[in-house]
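Materials and Methods. Structural model of Fatty acid ABC transporter ATP-binding/permease protein. The 560-residue sequence of Fatty acid ABC transporter ATP-binding/permease protein from uncultured Rubrobacteraceae bacterium was retrieved and submitted for structure prediction as follows.
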Amino acid sequence: MVLVVLGAVAQAGGPWLIGRAIDLYILEGDAAGLARTMMFLLAVYALGTVASRGQVYGVGAVAQRLLASLRERIFDRLQHLPLRFFDRRPVGDLMSRVTNDVDTLNQLFSQGLTQLLGSIFSLVGILVAMLVLQWNLALACFAVIPIMLLTTAFFARRARQAFRLTRETVGDVSAGLQEDIVGVREAQAFNRTERNIARFRERNAANRDANVQAVAITSAFSPAIDVLSTLATALVIGYGGYLVFAGSISVGVLTAFLIYVQQFFRPVQLASQFYTQAQAALAGAERIYNILDEEPEPPDPPEARKVGRIEGRVAFERVTFAYAPGRPVLRDVDFRIEPGQTVALVGPTGAGKTTIASLIPRFYDATEGTVSIDGRDVRDYARKELRENIGIVLQEPFLFSGTIADNIGYGRLDASREEVESAARTVDAHGFISGLPDGYDTTLGEGGGSLSQGQRQLLSFARAVLTDPRILILDEATSNIDTRTEKVIQEALARLLKGRTSVVIAHRLSTIRSADLILAVRDGRVVERGTHEELLGLGGLYADLYRRQFREPVGREVVD
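The predicted structure was written out as tokens:
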């Protein structure tokens, strides 16, 4: 602020010195006095230059720290938002908010804010200097200010709407781009590339048109200010010339006024540029704060139980759950798993099997009823410690950019290399890892691109093994693995599941024959429960699934 004030004083003092040089030294022929004034003027402008650079650097440094903090806040909030938030929003649009929308604020703070601060103080200094020099001439110049305010208000309303549309359309472009790049294999397989290109062109054209519309509005603002500046200059020349003829002011004062008029509208023009940037930034800020204003996962209760080492007794008591209000996907689900038991969930696609498993680690909370572990509602546990006791292997494993060792140790940052290798040996992944050029230090791209589906799944198993969970959830974890690898995995899982509570979701019924309890799920309800032999004997849903999968009789006529 000190530098901003110094810059404003230097800008306001320059024309006054020029006017003084004309009246006292040029018209009087005093070369020595003119030289002294010019040296002083040089010093004033040098001070203004240094102050201007200092304020740009100071504001820019503060702005960059602010923006870095804002990105951290956004990422922190995204990491703590409930999964239902991501269920309804495209990833590309969220990425656009963190990158493109924050970048609009970057332009505002690193450039526009400095200009605005300097402009405001320069404008104040100029107004004061003009009133001190000749108040009536100053008032004549100020006559254009109401017109300027009306002009600004006129463009303001239109610009805000236009820039809001630009942020929305660039979000659409980013979302579509992310989806089409991730799904490029499917696009080529189903000959969708041309249609995807056409759809991208439509989104890109919409963003282009929105930006052109915004530019059309803002580009008309600066010329309007130029017209007002020319009008004010004409007023000063006309009225000021009259005052010079009347002997009320000197030529030097009139010259100083002409310079002040130019300087008066320069801050206004800079402020108009700031306004343009501000409209884009405010539109981006709206999208950013839509994320920051989202409610994160409910905090753990103050008396949240420190889990420690759980036994692994899981119970569902009349659990109902809905992703959207009024549309339950689970209804009155009721079952119990004793420590060390393996429970399998089977049923048609969309029956609610994955939803049941997702309630155990509190990815979602039950709408009605209770999910409990060791006799205590999971909502009474601290999430972090609860999830430290639960291992999850999904059908589509996600591998992060980094080494193979980093991916296996993702859930245990303190794991040693020996522990990482031991986990890989447990699931028979050590062999193929050792065969890679850099072994465990082999760097993978996002998703583990160069590895086969089975190899990626083995790494996800090793990741779960390393955390040594008391409860293990396998969601179609072997569906993408070949028969030979599945046999190896089954042998490894027999060792892994021993003494652990496990919930296995499977369409491949051969993998869950030995489960202690099988729950057949349909339309969000548990319709059958029992062992493999018991359910075959019932001749119901499970028997029908088994018959369809293996094309063999189950001992009697199957009734769906």
